């Protein structure tokens, strides 16, 4: 519970840390807090700026700031959907990123879009190639053919990010 009541207390700082263990996660969150939000924001922004400077082409047809911002957000959403431990494994959708619990809307099980679907992988790879990130598109193709493709030449309906088939349907 955050001590915010909207009158006397209107601000709280929350840091998320990710790691393989609770201790690693806590250490990551504490390091972010120690660095400060301005430093963390600056590093985050610089990372994305390097990505755009070295990879992405912004179409000259985008005339307004709002159009350019929407374009960049779309590129970032696709690029960020790549699993960090399994290059080329792009999940179908970040919503919901986790699928468990008792809420049937969240419990999508093996058919969830937190999985890698070959049909969506193709669309993401095509989009990233069009944006100018050909390296990401190549990683996606390699994942499809080197990791996800079945011995009979087909693809599972979907798989976890390590390529383990999840659902039993056929992906055309």
Give a description of the structure.
With 172 residues, the chain is an all-alpha fold. 45% of the residues lie in helices and 2% in strands. The protein contains five helices and two strands; from the N terminus they run H-H-H-H-H-E-E. It has helices spanning 22-35, 37-54, 65-80, 118-131, 134-148; strands at residues 155-156, 170-171. Strands 1-2 form a two-stranded antiparallel sheet. The chain is globular and about 65 Å long. The protein starts with 21 loop residues before the first helix and ends with a strand. The model has no long low-confidence stretch (mean pLDDT 87).
The percentage of residues in β strands lies in under 5%
Structural class: mainly alpha
Number of contiguous helices: 5
DSSP strand tally? 2
Order of helices and strands: HHHHHEE
| Average of the residue pLDDT scores | 87
Distance between the termini: 47 Å
Give the biggest beta sheet: 2 strands, antiparallel
Our Rg estimate from Cα atoms comes to 19 Å
- Physical arrangement of strands within the biggest beta sheet: 1-2
Which descriptors apply to this entry?
172 residues; two-stranded antiparallel ribbon; mainly alpha; globular
Question: What's the SSE blueprint?
Answer:
Blueprint (H helix, E strand, L loop, with lengths): L21 H14 L1 H18 L10 H16 L37 H14 L2 H15 L6 E2 L13 E2 L1
Antiparallel strand pairs: 1-2
Helix pairs in contact: 4-5
Please summarize what this structure is.
With 172 residues, the chain is mainly alpha-helical. 45% of the residues lie in helices and 2% in strands.
């Amino acid at each position: 519970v955050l001590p915010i009541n909207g009158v006397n207390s209107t601000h709280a700082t929350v840091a998320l840390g990710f790691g393989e263990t609770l201790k690693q996660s806590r250490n990551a969150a504490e390091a972010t807090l120690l660095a400060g939000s301005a430093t963390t924001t600056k590093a985050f922004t610089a990372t994305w700026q390097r990505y755009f400077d070295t990879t992405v082409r912004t179409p000259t047809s985008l005339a307004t700031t709002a159009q350019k911002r929407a374009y960049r957000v779309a590129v970032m959403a696709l690029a960020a959907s790549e699993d960090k431990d399994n290059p080329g494994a792009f999940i179908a959708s970040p919503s919901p990123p986790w699928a468990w619990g008792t809420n049937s809307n969240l419990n999508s099980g093996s058919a969830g879009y937190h999985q890698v679907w070959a049909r969506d992988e193709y669309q993401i790879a095509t989009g990233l190639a069009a944006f100018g990130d050909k390296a990401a598109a190549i990683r996606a193709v390699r994942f499809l053919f080197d990791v996800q493709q079945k011995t009979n030449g087909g693809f599972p309906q979907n798989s976890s990010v390590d390529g383990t088939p999840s659902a039993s349907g056929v992906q055309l």
